[in-house]
Each structure stands twice: as structure tokens, then as C-alpha cells.
Amino acid sequence: MNVKAARIINFGDSEEAALLRAILEQLGLRVTVENSGNPVHFLEALNEFFQVDFLIIAGHGKQNGLFFGEFIASVDTSLLRDGYLPVDEIRAQSKGATVISSACSTGNAEFAAVFQKAGANAFLGPASDPDGVAVPMILHQFFYNQIVEKQPRKKSLINAQANMNKENQFELFEFGKKDIS
Q1: Reported pTM
Q2: What is the Cα–Cα distance from 96 to 153, expressed in whole angstroms?
Q3: Residue 89 has pLDDT above 60, yes or no
Q4: Measured by CB atoms within 10 angstroms of the end CB, which terminus of the chain is less buried, N or C?
């Protein structure tokens, strides 16, 4: 039996990461969680290659990047701009994975391009600032549709959002089908 695997890299929303882990394990996936406390550890985690079907980034974001906030002086924050890690500083290893971000405003071509260059099959992220309570519910339905119902990614997302009356909350970029570079 080929068990699907997921890796969650959490950089600021441990409750959401724990919920997503429980959802994925209930659906039969093998799940690992990496908690990253600062931008350097986050980037190190993104660049460790793990062969997984799903790579999930759990945290907070805005158009200007992923939110990390402020740290004590001894923590290297040289990559941050006003507490945010800008997309142009993000490098990753994601060969063969569907990359999913729960961070607000990451569902755009700029974020998707990072993971396309890293070898991902697809990238999925919130288009703007969705209801934070709805995000794990939409993702739960998305995963259920893909894993249990065997729906293709696009149909899984459309149906998940429709079930929540939250159409267009997430953007999906499928590489090879829709070139974003």
C-alpha cells in the first residue's frame, strides 16, 4: 500500500498546524510537523528535501511576504523587512509535491513561482485575507476530495470552496498546465 505523506512547516500558527495534522492523519496520511521559530529556521526547513505528496506552510502573511514579527537582537532577522520575509528571499525544495500555504495573500504568481522553480507539481494559497476559521475547513474538504473522492486538484478546490460558500478564497497554480513564469 502506497501511503501518502505530508509535511507541515509551521512558522506562527501552531493551532492551525495541529488541526491540519489531525485532519491529514484522519485521512490516512503520514504527517510530519516542523515548527520554525524564526526566518532562518523556516528557510532551512524549506530547503530540507523530504519526499512528500503535500508540503504545507502554516502561518501568517500579507502581500509583502510571510509574517514573522520582531525578535531579540541575537536572532538573525537580516532577511526580514518590517517583520515580513519577502517572497524574493524564499528558496525551497519541493520536487513532486503539491505545496499549500495557509498564509494570507500568498495565492499569487510570485509565491507560486518560487515553488514551481523548486519542482512542485502545484501551488495553492489564499488569494487575499480569508476568514481564518474557514481556511482549515476549506483545506479539509480539499484534501478529502483529493484523497478519498479521487478528484483532480482543481475540481477538489472548486468543490471545497463551494461547500463553504467561500468561492475564490484560494488560487491554484498547476505547473505544466499553466505556466506562471
Answers
A1: 0.92
A2: 14
A3: yes
A4: N
